[in-house]
Specification:
Two copies of one chain form a homodimer. With 164 residues, the first copy, chain A, is an alpha/beta fold. Chain A has a seven-stranded mixed beta sheet, sandwiched between helices. In chain A, helix 1 packs parallel to helix 2. Chain A is globular, with a radius of gyration of 15 Å. Chain A starts with a helix and ends with a strand. Chains A and B meet through helix 1 and helix 2 of A and helix 1 and helix 2 of B. The site of one nickel (II) ion (NI) has 2 residues of chain A, from loops.
Amino acid sequence: MSRLDSFIRRVTAQRACLDYAAQLIDGQDGVVLEVGLGNGRTFDHLREIMPDREIFVFDRQVASHPDSTPDEDHLFLGDLPDTLARAAEDLPQPAILVHSDIGTGNAEWDARMAEMMADVLPRVLKPGAVVVSDQKISLADAEDISLPAGVQKGRYFFQTYRGR
Amino acid sequence: MSRLDSFIRRVTAQRACLDYAAQLIDGQDGVVLEVGLGNGRTFDHLREIMPDREIFVFDRQVASHPDSTPDEDHLFLGDLPDTLARAAEDLPQPAILVHSDIGTGNAEWDARMAEMMADVLPRVLKPGAVVVSDQKISLADAEDISLPAGVQKGRYFFQTYRGR
Ligand SMILES: C[S@@+](CC[C@H](N)C(=O)[O-])C[C@H]1O[C@@H](n2cnc3c(N)ncnc32)[C@H](O)[C@@H]1O
Ligand code: NI
Ligand code: NI
């Protein structure tokens, strides 16, 4: 498998995961959090498949395509977990879906970030919320959900937060 | 269609074009030129689908993934068209396939580059060579080839060089 093949597989799996997550939360109240804006492709997809949701975006800086940049009321700029702590105060409602795509490829750093996410996320989640992430986040009070068809194990992680 | 959707379409079409190009030149002598290394994904794909071909790569600089960086004997570093002119002297054989992926999104610049390519490519091509490009290159003494199935018109350009 070439790097082009595995890249196509990765972005295709990512889309399958987002589409599936949107189905899972259909009909349930709550905002959506996009953690990691990057070039804005997944943000653009989320808002297209969930046109009626408020989507809040987190990143250190804006480096997205101009077409895919959230307005400033939906942007938390700065370092995670500061921005997530701020969101816990400022969000109009808790989140029913979080998509976290913040892996860097540096295993040590990514593990630290995943641990931080596990600590902070409960402050912004609704019971029943779905967390979809490119790294394994060991959230307490949560259950794993199986991946959508066609997505390789370990490529994405799905869980639902029971609340406490 | 979200930007994620159109991105998936683009990379999938790219792979279909490279696979098809490899079929078209199957059994014919000649080297392969990858014009525009970028992160090296298509270079990696080309060498995977054509393990027995010599592939020469052109870019201004090396910014590819370490796994997908050609050795220095197969790398022409510098500005096109200088490097293509150098290749015309130094290649062990003329090229039976050129993949050119150098579009920047700046229409004026891209048109200038396409014109430059049309001027310079004949110096490195074998009669019968296939030229696959992300921009329309108006090569003299060449015929358009239809795109592989599933690839949208205008996304990629295929032609075969008759020679002169
Ligand atoms: C889009 S990237 C290629 C991506 C690659 N085909 C892939 O999919 O993995 C385009 C590359 O062309 C190179 N390039 C564009 N114009 C060039 C020129 N005039 N001279 C040398 N390199 C050029 C850029 O440096 C860049 O790395
Ligand atoms: Ni655009
Ligand atoms: Ni690698």
